[in-house]
Design brief:
The protein is an alpha+beta fold. The protein is built from six helices and five strands, in the order ββαααααβββα. It folds into three domains: about 50-100; about 105-150; about 160-229, Double Stranded RNA Binding Domain. The chain has helices at about 25-30, 35-45, 50-100, 105-150, 160-180, 215-229, and strands at about 5-10, 15-20, 180-185, 190-200, 205-210. InterPro entries: Ndc80_Spc24 (IPR013252), Spc24_Fungi_globular_sf (IPR038066).
């Protein structure tokens, strides 16, 4: 549209530009020199609505994504709720069964039995502690005895050497008797009170009780005659 300003209008001591309108043409024809359809088309073309369309598209995509995310979260929450409901139902059933199966009398008896076991264990622990103290005391005594023996050496003191020599003589005699088929047996006090004489030729076994009122010569002759058969 082309508007021509060719004259000046005077009004209230002010000057404004007024469009020049020929006298032989209507005002509407002078204002719109171009086709209104073309004018509207050019006007629409001058508006850049592509960014707005892209923004609207992005908003729609965001809304779609948000709706999908919400739907997914709702489905997950519903699934979790169903699982929790089933678990709650199972626990409720177990609780009801436990309440029905609970026997107060049997529970009290079990508690009494556990208390009895507890007292027995405490008593056994006390006895073991006493026994441990006794063994520790005995161990200390044995350590002292070991220290004394180590101080005496391999030969020991005079009394020990004499006892060992006497024992060696006794062992030698017992060995000689055993080679002849005679076993000398001691009693609980360590005194030789019994002799077992075996005759290998006849397969006989004679048991002789040794009495101190008889002499050694008597028993020597008796043993010899028994072995000769």
């Amino acid at each position: 549209m082309t508007v021509k300003y060719t004259n000046v209008c005077e009004s209230a001591n002010t000057f404004t530009f007024c469009p020049f309108i020929p006298k032989n043409k209507p005002a509407a024809t002078m204002l719109l020199d171009e086709n209104p359809a073309d004018l509207i088309h050019h006007t629409i073309g001058n508006f850049n609505i592509q960014p707005d369309k892209q923004a609207v598209s992005r908003v729609n995509d965001s809304l779609t994504t948000l709706q999908q995310s919400r739907d997914l979260r709702i489905r997950e929450a519903e699934s979790s709720l169903r699982k929790l409901s089933r678990h709650l139902q199972s626990l409720s059933t177990q609780h009801e069964e436990a309440v029905i199966a609970h026997d107060a009398g049997r529970h009290a008896a079990a508690m009494v039995e556990l208390d009895t076991k507890k007292f027995r264990i405490a008593k056994a622990a006390s006895e073991l502690e006493i026994e441990s103290e006794r063994l520790e005391s005995e161990l200390e005594m044995l350590k002292d005895r070991l220290a004394d023996l180590e101080a005496q050496g391999l030969e020991g003191d005079e009394v020990t050497r004499r006892e060992r020599e006497a024992d060696d003589a006794i062992l030698l005699r017992l060995k000689i008797y055993r080679s002849l088929g005679i076993d000398i047996e001691p009693d609980d006090a360590g005194i030789f009170t019994k002799a077992v004489i075996r005759n290998s030729r006849k397969g006989d076994v004679h048991v002789v009780n040794l009495d101190p009122k008889f002499s050694r010569f008597f028993y020597s002759n008796y043993f010899w005659s028994t072995m000769q058969g």
